[in-house]
Write a structure and sequence with these properties.
It is a single chain. This protein has 612 residues and is α+β, with helices and mostly antiparallel strands. The chain has 22 helices and 21 strands. It has an 8-stranded antiparallel beta sheet with strand order 11-12-13-14-21-18-17-16, with no helix packed on it. It has a 5-stranded antiparallel beta sheet with strand order 3-4-5-7-8, with no helix packed on it. It has a 4-stranded antiparallel beta sheet with strand order 9-15-20-19, with no helix packed on it. A hairpin with a 2-residue loop joins strand 1 and strand 2. It is globular.
Length: 612
């Protein structure tokens, strides 16, 4: 059965009791249960942050910053302070719960009311209602339900759950205001307007679906007092989550990549886990395909030492403090020791910045706090045939040596980069030939001008330019005949890239040679085709001569790239990285090696270079 079918197959009395008792069954007690909250050592970090926040003025949200999206394309001028307001309020709520202190409750109440008094919870980049009117000021009468609105109502809902008695005592009337704003800005628009693109009713599903649905769910469970409306909202949420799950590939892949996995499949798991919890386990959705495979995705994408295989707008080195407890509970629900080990390996990386609800659920999870740190599973190889992604490493369970990731797919994926056939080669876990990942989002990031951004173009991925043309965007530009051949000592990917370009007959073979401790990439094409091979490099080039480039990686290892010396040195370019997000991962500069090839075959070999 599907998730929606399982939900509706429950005895109506069980569903009704679950919704009526959701606040008591959520597993997160209010601040009056001091025994739970005073036993968490993580409170030190939270309280230090809360104290630092109190020494500064509350963020100011200015119309001029909101309007910059339309004026000069800058999103962060408003989204930064708006995010800071949400984060500071969340931290204040956590501090109030952990201490029971009245001053902390007042600080949380201040933040909650400031959120309620915002003209809009929507981010400017999503405010299409204002754009349609030719305006830059949101209309409170027609709220747009986007990620910003969902993230905000989530804070109100969890704050009401855990601070309810204290808010009634300290600031009577605030909880009524929270419910009013949740109803006006989120719950009513969710029910009455089914045109929201993230619902996926047109078949296009992406991470907004579980992200927003999960927050709407907690708003309905903790803030909605009308049982009829609450049931209506929850049923629609389950339908939406079901659409998202059924759209995901059976191999457990995620075309948005590891970084967005936390706000896609992991959001889905959190919502399903909450529904399962309030039904006292009667819902039990965990055998629905492909939930088990989805839980294994993080270990399949792990390179080690904080590096991950990234695709699209994903970062190769995302923030480490992810909500690993979500994955640990998921592993417990499906009985997978590897999934639990992947989560427990990050036991000390507490994801309190990942949202108020996630932080509270983590703090209340006794099994997570008692989990023993484990080594990373680090599979020897993982092949995801539906998203066409192969990841292989020198030795399973070890970060030493070479790792190779090869991507097929098409150029109309979520958060797409034009990168069909690209590959990542990492030495001792650190990428050498890289996928640059997500730049800072601006007004052009998801517009018709998206591919003006250099990092999303194929000429800044590890794929060739064919007959003077790079890859274009669109589902028709794809890899075909992707086959993986696994032997004990080699892992080989073969794929046809002819349909990824307007012209040319191009095939690529990428091999991890475990005995030779090397990565080998071979491209072949029809005679008469003009090929310029492009390779994007992180680290510091230290030697460059015909047929050879030596690079000191960002991790301190030395990699050697070799090709036919008759092709010369090629052109080695250095590009300054002035984008803060990219610089945080790759440093102040990256490099690109371009080799013009005159015949019908090219081979690149990567080995460990001599120590310097």
């Amino acid at each position: 059965m599907t998730v929606a079918q399982r939900w509706r197959a429950l005895d109506p009395a069980i569903r009704r009791a679950a919704l009526d008792s959701a606040r008591d069954r959520a597993g997160v007690p209010d601040l009056e249960h001091r025994g739970v909250w005073e036993s968490r050592p993580a409170s030190v970090a939270v309280l230090e942050r809360a104290a630092a926040d109190r020494s500064r003025p509350w963020p100011r949200l200015l119309l001029s910053d909101f309007a910059r999206y339309w004026r000069d394309g800058v999103r962060t001028a408003y989204e930064g302070p708006a995010g800071e307001l949400r984060q500071r309020t969340s931290t204040a709520v956590l501090a109030a719960v952990l201490t029971g202190d009245q001053q902390a409750v007042d600080e949380a109440a201040d933040g909650l009311l400031l959120l309620c008094e915002q003209t809009t919870w929507c981010w400017a980049a999503h405010e299409s209602f204002a754009t349609a009117r030719g305006e830059v000021v949101a209309d409170p009468g027609t709220p747009y339900l986007d990620l910003g609105a969902a993230e905000t109502v989530e804070i109100l809902a969890w704050a009401d759950l855990v601070l309810g008695p204290a808010l009634d005592a300290r600031v009577p009337g605030l909880r009524r205001r929270l419910r009013k704003e949740a109803e006006r800005r989120v719950l009513r628009p969710f029910v009455e307007d089914r045109r929201w693109h993230w619902l996926g009713l047109d078949g296009h599903l992406h991470n907004w679906n579980p992200w927003i649905h999960g927050h709407v769910l907690v708003a309905a469970l903790f803030l909605e007092t009308d049982p009829v409306r609450r049931t209506q909202v929850v049923d629609l949420v389950v339908d939406g989550l079901d659409r998202y799950l059924r759209a995901l590939p059976a191999d457990g892949g995620c075309d948005e990549g590891y970084a967005y996995w936390w706000n896609g499949p992991a959001r889905l798991a959190s919502a399903l886990e909450l529904l399962d919890r309030i039904t006292l386990g009667a819902f039990d959705p965990w055998q629905c395909t492909p939930l088990e495979e989805l839980a294994r995705y993080p270990q399949r994408m792990t390179l080690g030492d904080g590096w991950f295989v990234n695709v699209g707008d994903g970062s190769a080195r995302p923030a480490p403090d992810q909500p690993w407890d979500v994955l640990h509970r998921w592993g417990r629900r499906i009985g997978d020791e590897g999934v639990m080990a992947q989560a427990a390996a990050h036991r000390e990386e507490l994801g309190f910045l990942a949202g108020l609800g996630r932080a509270l659920v983590a703090l209340a999870d006794d099994d997570w706090w008692q989990a023993t740190a484990m080594p990373l599973p680090l599979p020897r190889s993982s092949w995801l045939p539906e998203v066409q992604l192969l990841v292989a490493r020198q030795d399973g369970g070890s970060t030493a040596g070479w790792a190779l990731a090869v991507k097929g797919g098409h150029n109309d994926e979520n958060h797409n980069h034009n990168d069909v056939g690209s590959f990542i080669a990492a030495l001792d876990a650190t990428p050498v030939l890289v996928d640059l990942g997500q730049p800072t989002y601006t007004a052009i990031s998801f517009s018709g001008r998206r591919y003006e951004q250099w990092v999303v173009r194929s000429e800044w991925h590890n794929v060739p330019v064919v007959n003077g043309l790079e890859q274009d965007a669109g589902r028709q530009w794809r890899a075909t005949d992707f086959a993986v051949h696994s032997a004990g000592d080699t892992e080989r990917a073969e794929l046809d890239l002819s349909d990824a370009y307007p012209s040319g007959n191009l095939r690529r073979t990428a091999t991890l040679d475990r005995i030779g401790q090397a990565v080998r990439v071979v491209d072949t094409w029809a005679e008469g085709t003009e090929i310029a091979e492009h390779f994007v490099i992180a680290g510091q080039p230290v030697a460059h001569e015909p047929g050879r480039l030596v690079v000191e990686t960002l991790g301190g290892s030395v990699a050697e790239l070799r090709w036919d010396a008759d092709l010369g040195t090629g052109r080695l370019e250095t590009r300054a990285v002035d984008d803060e997000l990219l610089q945080r991962v790759w440093g102040p500069a990256v490099h690109r090696l371009i080799l013009a090839v005159g015949n019908d075959r090219f081979e690149l070999t990567l080995t460990r270079g001599p120590r310097r």
